[in-house]
């Protein structure tokens, strides 16, 4: 019986040490915690007290979770009908592991002429868990159905640990300045191609 009691006590202490919780937010009243891990206890009227174990506390001026988001490239010209992956980066700069929800918005006159596929964000539409200080790369796939439009695609990333925290990154897709397929040529374009072919043919016959 004594062994069982000690085992349960050890398990409980291990559980406390592995917990990552926010002790309190300082928005409504002062909160007191160590200014650094293992440091002296101080009280603050802003920010948040964070915990990394059973006893280790630290204060952060913004909160215990934070992250940055950006997309590369920021501007791109895509080939008609070709699935192209872009790199969406999520950098966890907070003190805790976190997971993130990813979605997008399209700004365009014809948003139906572009397809954004989040199957490259695994599992689809969400990312995580991402450890503190960890940078991950996700691969949204974009397909455009016309070469005469421009789009702004905004990726919105929301922390699942703190749903009030979100970041955005924008990608601009520019009009193509060159023909991408024969179906895009008008009748004048086709006539020009035929004239060019005939001209080259007769030049070769005259040699």
Q: Notable features of this structure?
A:
207 residues, alpha+beta, Immunoglobulin-like, 2 domains, 5-stranded mixed beta sheet, 3-stranded antiparallel beta sheet, 2 helices
Fold topology:
Elements: H1 2-18, E1 22-25, E2 31-34, E3 41-44, E4 48-51, E5 57-60, E6 67-72, E7 75-76, E8 84-85, E9 87-92, E10 98-107, E11 114-117, E12 126-130, E13 135-138, E14 141-144, E15 151-159, E16 166-173, H2 187-206
Parallel strand pairs: 7-16
Antiparallel strand pairs: 1-4, 2-3, 4-5, 6-9, 8-14, 9-13, 10-12, 10-15, 11-14, 15-16
CATH topology of the largest domain: Immunoglobulin-like
User: Could you tell me the radius of gyration in angstroms?
Assistant: 28 Å
Number of strands: 16
CATH architecture of the largest domain, by name, is: Sandwich
pLDDT < 50 runs, ≥5 residues: 9-22, 178-185
Based on CA inertia axes, which overall geometry fits? rod-shaped
Number of domains: 2
Quick take:
The protein is an alpha+beta fold. 18% of the residues lie in helices and 39% in strands.
Commentary on this structure:
It contains two helices and 16 strands. By secondary structure, it is an alpha+beta fold. It folds into two domains: 2-60, no CATH class; 67-177, Immunoglobulin-like. A hairpin with a 6-residue loop joins strand 15 and strand 16. It is rod-shaped, with a radius of gyration of 28 Å. Mean pLDDT is 77; it is low at 9-22 and 178-185.
